[in-house]
Amino acid sequence: MALRSVSRRLGSRILNHRSFVASLHSHATSFGFQEVKEEDKSKLVGNVFTNVASSYDIMNDVMSGGLHRLWKERLVGKLSPFAGMKHLDVAGGTGDVAFRIYDSIYSVKRRALQKVDEASLEETQIYVCDINPNMLNVGKQRAAERGLRDNKSLVWVEGNAEALSFDDNSMDGYTIAFGIRNVTHIEKALAEAYRVLKRGGRFLCLELSHVDIPIFKNLYDLYSFQVIPNLGELIAGDRESYQYLVESVRRFPPQEKFASMIADAGFEKVEYENLVGGVVAIHSGIKL
Amino acid sequence: MYRTAAKRLLGGGGAFTATRLLRFPKLRSTIIPSSYTSGLCTSSVGGNAESPMGGNQSVNPNQSDHTASSSSSTSTGEGPRRDESRKPRAEFQEEQARVLSASLRHVPRLGWTEEAMMAGSRDVGVSPSIVGSFSRKEAALVEFFMDECLQLLMDKIDSGLDLQNLIPSARIAKLIRIRLEMQVPYMSKWPQALSIQAHPLNVATSFKQRAMLVDEIWHAVGDGASDLDWYVKRTILGGVYSTTEIYMLTDDSLEHRDTWAFLDDRVKDAFDLKKSIQEARYFAQDIGAGVGKSVQGLMNGVMQTMSRRSGGTTF
């Protein structure tokens, strides 16, 4: 039922925009189910995240029922951070993944169990890059709350995933959690990831993905299109942003297509792991 | 559902070039769809001749060397990635083998751990993050070592070991000795390796490796005239090997002399066992024959009596 209403809405949108699209001179890309000019997409995305920044974390918890924490734990587990690593977390504004990586490296238990060279511990650098300064501010605030305000290991950088300001072959790890679907040109972001990683460096992407299981898919669609925008209105006071969010998930390439895009960027051993039947997928690759 | 998805993929997207279309079928055939349960099933893209098993370490290093040589002959050096006929799996396996091989040097000091592997990766010139992608990390190192030792043993056998002049028990002892001597440099950390191999996740692979080792030794010994069956032979040899390996852990005699004496005793016991089983079998046959004869005699007697009683009619 939800699908039919969505497709009707989609159909009407396409009809409306056909004339609009014909008048575009530049390339068109998707903003949720809308077609927009490329230059506009980043601005529109920027607006979305400026709006949601303050309630981003709460909304994550509510929408995923707290599961997003487990997904991020799994991502960091897969990364296996080590002391002295240079890590880049892109689109990680509020710092969820970055804090987990930091904790994983500096945990006292781990240092006791493994012979960690204290000097290399000092060299650890975790860069958090986000295009939206509001998100970064939320992250810096959370860092301050944890007592990490002046910590040299965490570096907050404003930047664009398609044009990173980091040197070639400078990072041991690159993660992007729930960020790559907001990028206008995914291939560019992947190419930048490849450029920035050292030889042997790992690329990990946590993203909402496609569900194929028959009945579960319908339930998931129902939840996405009926429940989430209403939650967004209720909690964050912003239905449009969450409508965009849900639509952008559907427009994102499915697991295997995305995996082949990663392989095309040059990565080796490209794999993906579905969590919760495909609601979320972790793609990984290595630069060799 | 899948057909519509496929149509969407092939129809949509203006950036879909012809080259990608060509590559897709190959990728499709090697991509293993991940399990639908929220599990730890991964799937991989790329590779061709390699078996699409996610980073399986028990692949014989020999095999990976062959693919490495074939890939270097087809790809022209470090050409643009798109020209390579998609041999990413082989390159990763090769890189992994290189890192693990370099890590072995650090094992006596750091143990069979991630630290050793990270040190090894630094030696090769690769970022230590690659260690994070090895499946069952420490087990990968141990299994690599076991494969290497097996390969070394096979090479030694092929390059002419003087086995003809020895009796089977001496041949077995010699081969086991050669194999165990390869572990001597890592003896201080070998208990850790054994515990890693005994871990539930790793048991299957380590069992398979040991089975291959035992098989190889029996093959080299020449499967002498023995009427114990295949499984029993391998089980007994597996037992001899394991007990000697464990004995060696606590042996600090000069050049492990005590271990070799222990080994000789165990092999002798095994062969004695074989002899005693044979003797037991003959004994049982004799008894059976004796009993059978007496039973037969009894039955004959009974038959004759009955036929006499019933007035000469025979059945």
UniProtKB/TrEMBL annotation, chain A:
Pfam families linked to this entry: Ubie_methyltran
Chief location bin: mitochondrion
InterPro entries named in the record: SAM-dependent_MTases_sf, UbiE/COQ5_MeTrFase, UbiE/COQ5_MeTrFase_CS
Compartment(s): Mitochondrion inner membrane
Membrane as UniProt keyword: yes
Family annotation (PANTHER family): 2-METHOXY-6-POLYPRENYL-1,4-BENZOQUINOL METHYLASE, MITOCHONDRIAL, METHYLTRANSFERASE
EC code: 2.1.1.201
Gene: LOC104761808
Role: Methyltransferase required for the conversion of 2-polyprenyl-6-methoxy-1,4-benzoquinol (DDMQH2) to 2-polyprenyl-3-methyl-6-methoxy-1,4-benzoquinol (DMQH2).
Catalytic activity of the protein: a 2-methoxy-6-(all-trans-polyprenyl)benzene-1,4-diol + S-adenosyl-L-methionine = a 5-methoxy-2-methyl-3-(all-trans-polyprenyl)benzene-1,4-diol + S-adenosyl-L-homocysteine + H(+)
Name of the protein described by the UniProt record: 2-methoxy-6-polyprenyl-1,4-benzoquinol methylase, mitochondrial
Gene3D superfamilies xrefs: Vaccinia Virus protein VP39
UniProt keyword Plastid, yes or no: no
Binding positions for S-adenosyl-L-methionine per the UniProt entry: 94, 130, 160-161
GO terms classed as biological process: methylation
Automatic annotation (TrEMBL), chain B:
Primary location class: mitochondrion
The keyword Nucleotide-binding is assigned to this record: no
Residue ranges with Basic and acidic residues bias: 79-97
Ranges of residues in domain COQ9 C-terminal: 204-273
Family, as annotated: Belongs to the COQ9 family.
The protein's role, per its UniProt record: Membrane-associated protein that warps the membrane surface to access and bind aromatic isoprenes with high specificity, including ubiquinone (CoQ) isoprene intermediates and presents them directly to Coq7, therefore facilitating the Coq7-mediated hydroxylase step. Participates in the biosynthesis of coenzyme Q, also named ubiquinone, an essential lipid-soluble electron transporter for aerobic cellular respiration.
Protein name listed in UniProt: Ubiquinone biosynthesis protein
